[in-house]
Structures are given as C-alpha cells and as structure tokens.
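Here's what a typical entry looks like (Schlafen AlbA-2 domain-containing protein):
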Amino acid sequence: MGSWRQTTWTGSRSSPAKGLPQTDFPKDVAAMANSGGGVIVFGVRESQKAATERVDVGELTEAYERSLRSAAITAITPPVFRLNVHRLGDEGNRAVVVEVPASVDGPHLIYKNDYFAAPVRNDSDTVWMKERQIEAMYRARFEERRHATEALDSLYDEAAAGRDSDKRAWLIAVAHPRIPRSRDRLTREDARSVLTKTMGLALTYAGRAGIHPLENVDRNNPRPGLRRWVAVNTATGERSVWRRRG
C-alpha cells in the first residue's frame, strides 16, 4: 500500500452514515487512491502523528459499511471502487480497517460546492495537488488507457492468429488487467486454482445447457508459457475437436 492513516472513530454516534460525504473520509480515500493505495485504521488515538492507544469504535453495522463504500463513490470523482472493510478485535477493543486500492483513474477529485481539488498523501498528511501535479496525473491516466488498448489489441491478434475463421466460427475473448495484483509469477498451484474457479463461474452463469470450452482443457496441469500459464487443449478427437479451446 502507498500510504496509511490512523484515526479514532466511534461509529455512527459521531459520524452518522448520511453525513459521511461531508467528513474527511472521502478526502482521505481520494488522497490514498491518488497515492498508490493505502490503509485507514479507525480505533487508534494519535498524538503528534503517533499512535498512543487503542480506542473501541463500537459496532460496525452492515448499513454503516455500505455507507463507507457509498461515500467513496458518491463524494469522489471518478469514484473509488473496491474498498475492503475489515472488522478487528472483540467487544470493548474493536477496530476497523479500510483498505483503499491503487487506482489508474486519477486524479480523484473532491467537490465542495462549486469548487474541486485533488488530495494526495504526503507522508502522514493529506495535502492538495498543485496544477502541474494534476496535469501529470491526467497525462498518466490517458497514457495508461492507450497502453492498455494496445496490449489488448496485441493479445487479440495473437489469440486470433492461425484460426481457420474462413471455415468455421470462432469465439475469441481476451482480457488484460489494468492493475496487476502481483509482480511475481503465479505458481502452478495458483494457475490451477484460477482455472478451477473460472470453470465454476462459467457453470454458475451459463449452466449446463451449452458447451463449455473450459471443460475441454487440462485444468489440473497448466504448462508454463511466455509470461503466462497455458491450459492445454484436450478436445482432439473427431467428435470433440469442433468444440476445442485454442
């Protein structure tokens, strides 16, 4: 994570759910999203920017958790999605941790009446970006989108190459993550887990009524490829080759 913030919070007694957009919460979320992600800890009293003691935050209800996520969407432009909210500790010693993900959609702006500004983290403080910083973030956003489109087009061309589309119909789908979850290569076990979960999702959404290409690959023994793992096609017989996954 790029940054963090600790603060005390007493649940809905001090910050009603409907008033969250007017608190510092959206500003801190936007600042962390603009700074590579971060963590907000509710339930720690601080002095001179240093944690001094734990403070019970009270019960975090599902409604309040929804309000936290809603504030990150309605009070920030572009919205910040995928907040992870964690409850920690037992009664009398409860804390809440909010994980703010990294974002490629910056700068995330906060609007106050007719004015807007872009917050960013500076060590343990939240400050406002200067014009040149905002300009640089917009440039980075547009460059990322251009590179993402080029990467997707390249993946599609690679996947479509060599397919006899003049003789039969092909469904070709590719995807490219905008924010990689890990810089390390997936292990074989990780790749096997991804393929297994993907198969389960396919059956959940499509049911058993049709043909599922993922049923015709060796999901349990993926092979290493160039910056990827490859599930080898197993539909090789005359009766099944038509439904193969390339």
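The chain has four helices and 13 strands.

More examples are in the samples folder.
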